[in-house]
Amino acid sequence: MRKRGQGQHRGNDRAQEEGQAQGRAAAGTRAPGRAAAARGRSRAARTGIAAVLAATALLGTAAVPATAAAAAPAPAGTERQARAWLPDPTGPYPVGTTTLRLTDAGRQDPWKPDRARELMISLWYPTARPATGDDRARYMDPRAADHFGSADGAAVFNYRTEPGRTAWQQIRTHARQDAPALPGRGPRPVVLYSAGLGDPRTWGTGLVEDLASRGYVVVTVDHTYDASEVVFPDGSRADSVLPGMAGPGLDVGALLRKVMRTRVDDTRFVLDELAALRTDGRLPAGLGASLDLGRIGMVGHSAGGFTAVQTMHDDPRIAAGINMDGQLHFPGPDGTGVHLGGVAEDGLDRPFLLMGTGSEDSGDYHHQPGWDALWQHSSGWKADVTLTGSRHGSYTDAQSLLPQLARQGAVSGEQLRSDVGDVRPERAVAATRAYVASFFDRWLRGHDDHLLDGPSPRFPEMEFTR
User: Fold this and answer.
1) What distance in Å separates the CA atoms of residue 172 and residue 85, rounded to the nearest whole number?
2) For the segment 321-340, what is each residue's pLDDT rounded down to a tens digit?
3) How far apart are CA 163 and CA 292, in angstroms?
4) Structure pTM?
5) CB–CB of 312/304 below 8 Å?
């Protein structure tokens, strides 16, 4: 089903964006000098799978992270696998979850043009009865977990865990699988979640469950062939094509533009499908009727943060968005330089929140060329916070899971600090949840707790920037 001619709009937006991108590349516009170029280089070198791509462009040779190239899974039976758990949700409602396969029959898959684009999504929502024991849904499908923790998966590429050393398949969520939605409460605001480059949709489950426990319906999206792996109901698994694309002469900027166009198209297709899901019986009892499609927000991390605000720019159905440490620019063909994305050039007329980290190339909007441009060009409400002592992974499940794995030897102390910094994990999780919920409560529910009015003594870790 297509709402408001969205399929046509996606095609128009794509053509316009590609034309603008070619014009900027040809003219060399929006490339603000050596400092910004260095920031672009630093971000690419820091984000796992992106490091493979950037190293290829900069060095002219195929490259993989040293840990992925040198390490192999521990031999069976020689070491006990490390285990970890997610923090409890803090809202008043028990959580349910369900998964769904979506097929966009009108779109070729950009990575596999011989087939239609297929996605996996999960919905997280309030339910009546809490899950206990084995009733708690798995964090990852076992087939996905096997790949995620292998030498070819995002746990190694993006977070440098020891291959095979973590029992990812044993992690449980706090949600009941396919539970009926909590009845009698009326439609609920909907929030979409997009993960970072190469990360699966599960990598933000701690935040997503917390939002659902506070009364939201949250939709998480796997961007097939970008995400480390996507497992479909028939048991087939689609692994990321991005690591395999590394090679001499790779145009990193062009590849990342394709990634972003695909992610935005995926998200708009999911928005189209949500309208059909309200009434077609594919969801657990009561869930379709609980979707309030007049109140939609979006949040994402890293490339998912870029996806959130770019989709918001392209699609008026998204009323408010949060970008958690996602750059808004692309490198040039050699992997360096700064060329702004469309949302940074045009700005936004609806509310958005920027959440930076203590990484060298992050911080507040003054330190990031794409964020600064977005800030200056936007007419809507906006806020900018930075979690001190954090690093790029601090807004993901890395913040709660990796310290547990490090204590069991599955992640080195050095890599742990590189991924999540030295902020106390429980404080980082609490702050992230509070600021995300405060933003969506304010703009999707009309409930303002004033946390985003300025610095708060409740969270001294969060620096507020005007």
Assistant:
1) 7
2) 999 999 999 998 888 899 99
3) 42
4) 0.87
5) no
